[in-house]
Each structure stands twice: as C-alpha cells, then as structure tokens.
Amino acid sequence: MKHLVTAAMLAALSCAAHAQVTVKDAWARATVPAAKASGAFMQIESKREARLVAVRSPIANAELHQMSMRDNRMSMAPADAVDLPAGKPVQLAPGGYHVMLMGLTRQLKEGENVPLTLVVETKDGKRENVDVQVPVKPLSYSPPRR
C-alpha cells in the first residue's frame, strides 16, 4: 500500500510540473479546392513559463511562423518557438505568430475540424503535447477584436 501512495504522489507531482496549457478561440481558415496551405490561429495560456516549440498535424506539414513588417513590406518566416509567459495569454493571430499548414492533404471546409498537436516545453526541458481540434472558419472570417 505504501508503494501505491508513493506512486500516486509522484504522479501528482509529475503532473504539477507540466506547463498546464489551455487553448481558446482556435480557428483555421478554409481553403479553395486547389490550395495547399492555410493558417491556424488561437490564444494559448500556460500556467508556468514555457515555450511553444513545435506543432504537428496529420493533414499538413505544420510549422510555427511569424509575420512582420520590414522596410514597409510584410514578410513571413518560420519561428523556432513562441514564448508563453506564466499566466499571460499569447495570441497566435493573422499578422503575427501563427501556425502555417503547408502541403495540405485535403481541402479545409468550413465547419470541419483540423487536428493539431502543440508541443510545449517548460524551462526544465520537459515537453507536453496538447491536442487541439481547430474549427475551420470561412475564407472571409475575421476574429472579433479584443
């Protein structure tokens, strides 16, 4: 019995050490039939200081990207990670950090969901996978301003 209690305590401590990430307001942009790329957006909050270090999807090559303005030109490039300060929501949104879905295996249609796995790493190097079902919104969708 003592071993069971110890195992339960270790499991509880192990869970407490994870980032404890929540995702809200996730959405992905629908595509036209021939399109091979889209974007996914969301608000992420971690209870502990962490970083979003990768994203995966079974229907596309998913990467973290960042849009930025340079010399009056908008540019987009892969991002190694997105910092998640403890207790502060971070927006992945059009025009900033976002998930790029490239090489789509099928068209994204309004009303369906895109499966994503977010890989979050805490300061001590432990990784947590967060599975998210991201609803697909119409091509013309604009999220409400906050």
Automatic annotation (TrEMBL):
<keyword id="KW-0732">Signal</keyword>
<dbReference type="InterPro" id="IPR058248">
    <property type="entry name" value="Lxx211020-like"/>
</dbReference>
<feature type="signal peptide">
    <location>
        <begin position="1"/>
        <end position="19"/>
    </location>
</feature>
<protein>
    <submittedName>
        <fullName>Copper chaperone PCu(A)C</fullName>
    </submittedName>
</protein>
<dbReference type="InterPro" id="IPR036182">
    <property type="entry name" value="PCuAC_sf"/>
</dbReference>
<dbReference type="Pfam" id="PF04314">
    <property type="entry name" value="PCuAC"/>
</dbReference>
<dbReference type="InterPro" id="IPR007410">
    <property type="entry name" value="LpqE-like"/>
</dbReference>
